[in-house]
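Record 1 of the preview.
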Amino acid sequence: MSGPPGIAYSIYGAARLAIADPQGLDWFVPTRRGFWHSFRAAWILAPFYLLLTLVELSGQDGPLFLPLLLEGESYVISWVAYPLVMLYLCDALGRSDRFLLYATAYNWVALLQNLIYLPIPLLLGIGLLTPDAADLLLLSVLAAVSVYSWYVARLTLDVSGVTAAGIVLLDLLLALAISGGIDRVVYAF
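->
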């Protein structure tokens, strides 16, 4: 499944997983090719991330080239670092044979999760949400996304609930480290 039908099937699979339907896995291609194709999710999401970045940077003085470049690097690092970490973690957990299924599903699930998350800071940035309302929504989305990620990790890697929770925590900490490090550099200018 390549091209648009493959993308549609994969998004459908991610949506099935969002409602805890394990048959959502049937819509992914857990091969090396399917894994590499799952990074199309990053390309689909990129314009939305760029729009959010432009809104967030709109109040900054001076040229936006360097902050945009750094945010772009952060975006790429975020999509590449976690699967790389998980490659080694799957090996340590004795789940190397399930890595391609997990990583492929993870990328498509991340697309849906981000499409739910990104409108909140965007609406905050353009003044359609108050900071308190945005914080409440973001906390709610984080909780839902964490449960969704936990389910996907548990199902695809066939690990215990505690191990799946650790994987979700690792993902969150890595994302915070990447975005926090880049934000320190971007907003220093």
